[in-house]
Amino acid sequence: CDNSNIYTLSRPATELRIVLIGGRDNKHSSGKSSAGNIILGHNVFDTSRRTAQSEARQQEVLGRRLTVVDTPGWWWNFPREETPKLDQIEIQNSVHLCPPGPHVFLLVIPVGLYFFNLVKPSLKEHLELFKADVFSHTIVLFTAVHPYSDETIESKIRRSPFLQWILQQCGNRKHVLNISNRKDRDQVKMLLEKIEAMIEQNRGRHCSQIKQRILTEEEWNRREQELMERMMKALAKEPEKPIVPSVEVAGSKDDFYIPDSKFKMMKN
Fold this sequence. Notes:
alpha/beta; Rossmann fold; two-stranded parallel ribbon; 9 helices
């Protein structure tokens, strides 16, 4: 997370960057897109289909400039390895749609969702995609299609070890959003105030990924030469079994990013 923007909130933030994350099951979508529409006050996210790629929308809301990013959902009860690679990339890249990074992750959970034992490890694995301290920047956003009292929500939390765990990780930050009542702007105002309170607790820090270092052309040429030398040595030792390392293996060993121009050149 970035420590560069440290301040104390004495009045509402003029800009808030929000990333919506969450899972789904056979009965419930997470309601991320609907929540995004409620927060922004307009139908800017398509709720008629599953979100396949991360999308960002901006809007002036209650005196604040909001950037809201919707992301693909994962299956609540399945490990990350079962989530399509493209979905994982879209989730991971969502932070780049609200530069320099989100102030808050809203973990969207339907009130009626039943939690199996696999939900906790699945959530932890998917949050690891961000390679950052996500929990200190997360608010649990319960989505409902009819009014829920605080007592009902607290009762549900008491019955769910998973909800108790996730709320403990998030500093007990939570909010209930009635996604069927878009006229209720008070619920949005309260959510934004909770986000601002969390930002103040975090001393103004936003959350950003650990960025990959991009190799320069010179560094890439040197690594390419080293790779060729290793290939020649391997061929000299075992000429009957030539070793042809793939670009993916060579490039991912040190978690570096290969320039597009080089990747295209090697494919041709």
